[in-house]
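EI: anyone free to look at a 194-residue chain?
SC: sure, send it
EI:
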Amino acid sequence: MIKATKASIMWVIALKAEAMPIIDHFNLKIVHGIVPFSVYKNMDEDIWLVISGIGVINTAAATIFLRQLNKEKQNSFWFNIGIAGYYKGPIGDAYLVDKIINDVTGQTFFPLPALKTQLKRAQLLTVSRPVLDIKPDTLVDMEGYAFYKISSKLALKEMIVVIKIVSDFPDFDYTKVTKNGVSKLISDSMPNLI
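SC: here you go
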């Protein structure tokens, strides 16, 4: 007999400032004694979050780490939400990513999540270091590519979602972004994201 199971939600978030609004919204509690990443979960153990740190290596490792902690959940939705540079403002606009490009290899993915949303769509360039010259209609981050590459081996591609929120653009460069500003961007976007 096939048993229906409840889908879990797995969040892979780069920065603690990005994660705090999600942790607060879902009342997640830290899982103590686990290193090298901070991991949170709810009481029902169907919502999990890992803070990966910046960069593709950290994100890939954290995604695998989170999957290992939650082995029994085969039907999980995987979310990567965070800030990104964009070629123009305004700050705070949220985009569903429908194309991800690795700046080093040029490898490209085309996410097609089964997510009903009114969010605008954009492509994402994942870079190994911050850039100031951003091409039109392109978001820039340092984690999206690694998250998608790894999570697509762990879940159905339709259950993987990458959403980026504009935090900076050429007239307001990334050095002006603050922790409090990042948390506010995510918090203000939450009603449109969940």
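EI: The helical segments are 16-25, 56-69, 144-151, 179-193.
SC: 👍
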